[in-house]
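Re: your question about DUF1810 domain-containing protein

S., sorry for the slow reply, the queue was backed up all week. Below is exactly what I fed in.
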Amino acid sequence: MKSSNKDYNLERFKIAQDKCYHKVKAELSTERKLTHWMWYIFPQVYGLGQSATAQFYSIKSLPEANAYWRDPLLAGRLKECCQLLIDARETNITKIMGSPDDLKLCSSMTLFDHVIDNNSVFKLVLEKYYNASADPLTLEKIASWNAASE
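Result:
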């Protein structure tokens, strides 16, 4: 049976993004993240973040990551934010995102690069800022999801 977006409560991302997306784009355009929006703009796998907010906005399975990507609004915003990072002059991601958000970005890019075939935007972010290196903890989580589904 195919899961619907409602099964994953993707609305939680849209509601949060709607409140700040204009600010997110402005901050990424000026290459300086100043406010708190990382969890719902660049979601990462469940279990990496310990806060209640990180857990609430985490991606809990590969099917959920695929559902996120199939949602036109969420995918469009994710691609747009990635493109702003790709177009940035700054090559040090910590200067743009701060720490630990630089690590969270790597996790998010690793997740979506793994899930989405033939979409170079995530790979380009990883290449530009992380020497094309994926986040090992995210890869471990994805491997455990794959093993559980076999």
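The radius of gyration is 14 Å. The mean pLDDT is 94.

Happy to talk it through on Thursday.
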